[in-house]
Design a protein that fits this description.
Blueprint lengths: L2 H22 L2 H19 L9 H23 L3 H34 L7 H7 L4
């Protein structure tokens, strides 16, 4: 399995959890959940060091690292309803970045699959009854 798929899928789960948690738990609890999700996102963004991720995915990893760092700061600096809505926005942004990464991964995979061409020989056509 490709590292781009794994990291983007994990980021989507982290972001989705953060969005739901922002509306379920009280702000005092959510601050620490937001902090933990941000640390996980920054950790996932260190996958930029892996080979074969491509320039676009590395750029997305950089954006995830910046957003994760901002989320860490926001979870420690703000409180109350402000941290709830900042965490909601950060979680939604994590999900959006993950889906962009998954889409890029899928487009790359489709391009590779469609670049393979199969040519039938004349004897293959005769055996299958295809006339060309």
């Amino acid at each position: 399995m490709n590292s781009r798929y794994l990291t983007n899928s994990a980021l989507a789960v982290i972001g989705g959890f953060t969005v739901v948690a922002s509306q379920v738990w009280i702000p005092a609890t959510f601050e620490w959940l937001m902090f933990s999700a941000a640390i996980l996102a920054v950790t996932l963004s260190t996958a930029v060091a892996l080979k074969g991720r491509g320039n676009v995915q590395r750029g997305l990893d950089g954006l995830v690292a910046i957003l994760g760092a901002w989320t860490v700061v926001a979870s420690l600096v703000f409180s109350g309803s402000v941290v709830t809505w900042l965490g909601f926005a950060s979680g939604a942004a994590f999900v959006v970045l993950a889906f962009i990464g998954l889409t890029i991964h899928e487009l790359y995979t489709e391009r590779v699959v469609h670049s393979i061409e199969v040519h039938a020989t004349n004897s293959d056509r005769e055996l299958s009854g295809i006339t060309a």
